[in-house]
Specification:
Elements lengths: L8 H25 L19 H41 L5 H13 L2 H15 L5 H24 L4 H9 L4 H12 L1 H16 L3 H6 L8 H11 L4 H21 L1 H9 L5
Length: 271
């Protein structure tokens, strides 16, 4: 049955309006970053005469924080995948007693308030000397990435035909060789999806950064923006310029990895 022409137009209009409402804060952030120093509420709706002084100030004051966030975010991906990939494979392909209980425990860890984990880590880090360190932040942020990565990759690895694994075993490949040479290449989309979300979790982290760093030696951009607002409330163009620069890496990563994320997130839905 054919749908009458124009019947779906009201839904399209509603969708466009909702999209515009959701994107307006992003537009205003970019617009405010191109305004002269002062109150952004008095700025023009369109940056007819863009002023890039806010970006110069942001790069001077927050450039190091951006690098810190990039190092911590990229660094968190490696241990998260190194732990999550074999765990997901074992839970997906091996007949292990108590698998459902383990999965339930993983889900429970996602429900624990972040402040509880941060407080516990602060006490441990204080004794181990990991406060104000890249290693400390990487390990802390990995605690958020590992459970989610296990869930995503296990769902995908369950869809891998057992015949492929058994054929590799018949050819003489050991368990580690099968995992490295067969399972990981086949699970590329799931690995990229887990890596992207782990990066995004770490890049947007504020709680661990606030709790586990007390000096300017290691300060992620989220904490830099928070303290930047308190110190320069009249330089909103610089504040907004910092938020624009902080949004670019995450936006670029999502655009580049979009097709892999879509395939990895839905790969285990159809078996």
């Amino acid at each position: 049955m054919k749908r009458a022409p124009g019947r779906g137009r009201p839904f399209t209009i509603v969708g466009i309006v909702l999209l515009a409402l959701m994107l307006f804060p992003v537009y205003w952030m970019v617009n405010a970053s191109l305004q002269p120093t002062g109150n952004t509420l008095r700025g023009d709706w369109l940056p007819f005469h863009p002023d890039f002084s806010g970006y110069a100030t942001a790069l001077h004051d927050q450039g190091r924080n951006l690098v810190t966030s990039l190092v911590v975010a990229v660094g968190s991906v490696a241990p998260s995948l190194a732990l999550a990939a074999p765990a997901a494979y074992a839970l997906a392909q091996f007949r292990i007693r108590g698998t459902n209980l383990v999965l339930f425990g993983i889900l429970v860890t996602q429900m624990v308030p972040g402040i509880v984990v941060a407080d516990a880590l602060y006490s441990a880090y204080s004794d181990l000397g990991l406060l104000n360190s890249y290693v400390g932040l990487i390990l802390a942020d990995s605690t958020a990435g590992v459970p989610f990565a296990i869930i995503i990759m296990r769902s995908f690895m369950r869809s891998i035909p057992r015949e492929i694994i058994e054929a590799a075993r018949v050819d003489g490949a050991g368990m580690l060789r099968v995992f490295r040479s067969v399972v990981l290449p086949v699970s590329r989309n799931a690995l990229i999806t887990a890596a992207v979300f782990t990066f995004l979790f770490t890049w947007s982290d504020f709680l661990f950064a606030l709790t586990l760093t007390t000096t300017e030696t290691v300060r992620p951009i989220t904490l830099g923006i928070y303290q930047y607002i308190g110190a320069h409330t009249n330089q909103w163009n610089a504040v907004m310029a910092t938020t624009v620069m902080a949004s670019v890496p995450a936006a670029v990563l999502l655009v580049v990895a979009q097709r892999y994320v879509a395939a990895g997130a839905t790969g285990g839905a159809i078996k």
